[in-house]
């Protein structure tokens, strides 16, 4: 079986100059944007959190009502909470590219955000550090990044009816810890857009005969001759750039002379993700 490589157009590709947009999922100021969260993974299993008056109406959050979240001593590292009743406004990631939340932490930590229940894509989980303590701060996760759980795919392009939250994900506290949160939103703008990708392949160890190397994939409809690479200096390194590749995961492989030859990977798969500003794959 042939398995295609994947690339992810990451946040280092190109900055968007589009307008900022935001959808409020929860702000606890109206019935449509309010619900309670049910705890799991701790001694509070099955109980609900509280919607309370803002204990610190200052800085970026002066709104009247917020939610609390208690992580009891000895809680599981994966203890968290899910909406019950369910959200009335889903996390629509078909156009927005970030999920954001305002939090108040007693000490620096992290928030885990899990998107669940999409009919078109797998669940998605990622964490974001909270560096400010005892003040309201907003943190966001980019849904174009792969999930930290299998199958490790981005959430962009899917709609999720459930947003599960984890506070200090990966740790078990020695004593009860209380956090506050508000303004769960999805946002777009200031993120990433389509981007240009340069492909390169070393053909020096290939022993067959060919005329031209191509790159074929989902970004060009698996065309066998639509995107040729070139080797003008004859050093055996074939390169070429494809402009305006759509944001998200793309599968691709290097092919020869309109599919007379192609990469074979056996039973292995490879994920190529841009992870630094220089645009290098890893």
Describe this structure as you would to a colleague.
- By secondary structure, the chain is mostly beta strands.
- The chain folds into 2 domains: 86 residues, Immunoglobulins (Immunoglobulin-like), CATH 2.60.40; 168 residues, Galactose-binding domain-like (Jelly Rolls), CATH 2.60.120.260.
- The protein has no helices and 20 strands.
- Strands 2, 4, 5, 8, 11 and 14 form a 6-stranded antiparallel β-sheet that branches. Strands 1, 16, 18, 19 and 20 form a 5-stranded mixed β-sheet that branches.
- The protein is elongated, with a radius of gyration of 23 Å.
- The C terminus is likely disordered.
Number of domains: 2
CATH class of the largest domain: Mainly Beta
User: In the CATH scheme, what's the topology name of the largest domain?
Assistant: Jelly Rolls
Count the E strands. Answer: 20
- The N- and C-terminal alpha carbons lie at a distance of 24 Å
Q: Nearest-angstrom radius of gyration?
A: 23 Å
In CATH, the architecture of the largest domain is Sandwich
Q: Determine the mean pLDDT.
A: 87
Helix proportion of residues, in percent?
under 10%
Q: Helical segment tally?
A: 0
Major beta-sheet overview: 6 strands, antiparallel
Order of SSEs: EEEEEEEEEEEEEEEEEEEE
The proportion of residues in beta strands is 35-45%
Q: Give the CATH superfamily of the largest domain.
A: Galactose-binding domain-like
User: Overall 3D geometry?
Assistant: elongated
Structural class: mainly beta
Low-confidence stretches: 6-19, 273-282
């Amino acid at each position: 079986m042939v398995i295609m490589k994947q690339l992810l157009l990451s946040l280092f590709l190109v900055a968007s100059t589009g307008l900022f947009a935001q959808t409020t999922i929860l702000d606890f100021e109206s019935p449509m944007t309010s619900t309670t969260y049910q705890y799991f993974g701790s001694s509070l299993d099955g109980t609900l959190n509280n919607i309370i008056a803002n204990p610190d109406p200052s800085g970026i959050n002066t709104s009247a009502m917020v939610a609390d979240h208690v992580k009891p001593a000895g809680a599981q590292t994966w203890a968290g909470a899910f909406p019950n009743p369910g959200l009335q406004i889903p996390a629509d990631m078909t156009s927005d590219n970030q999920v954001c939340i305002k939090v108040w932490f007693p000490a620096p930590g992290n928030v885990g955000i899990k998107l669940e229940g999409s009919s078109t894509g797998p669940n998605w989980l990622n964490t974001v550090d909270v560096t400010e303590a005892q003040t309201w701060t907003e943190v966001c996760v980019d849904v174009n990044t792969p999930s930290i759980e299998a199958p490790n795919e981005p959430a962009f392009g899917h709609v999720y009816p459930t947003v599960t939250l984890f506070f200090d994900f990966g740790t078990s506290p020695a004593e009860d810890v209380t956090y506050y949160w508000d303004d769960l939103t999805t946002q777009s703008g200031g993120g990433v857009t389509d981007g240009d990708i340069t492909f390169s392949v070393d053909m020096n160890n290939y022993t067959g005969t060919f005329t031209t190397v191509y790159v074929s994939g989902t970004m060009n409809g698996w065309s066998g001759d639509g995107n040729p690479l070139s080797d003008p200096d004859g050093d055996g390194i074939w390169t070429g750039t494809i402009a305006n590749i759509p944001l998200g995961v793309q599968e691709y492989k290097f092919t020869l002379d309109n599919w007379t030859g192609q990469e074979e990977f056996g039973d292995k798969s490879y994920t190529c993700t841009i992870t630094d500003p220089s645009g290098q794959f890893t």
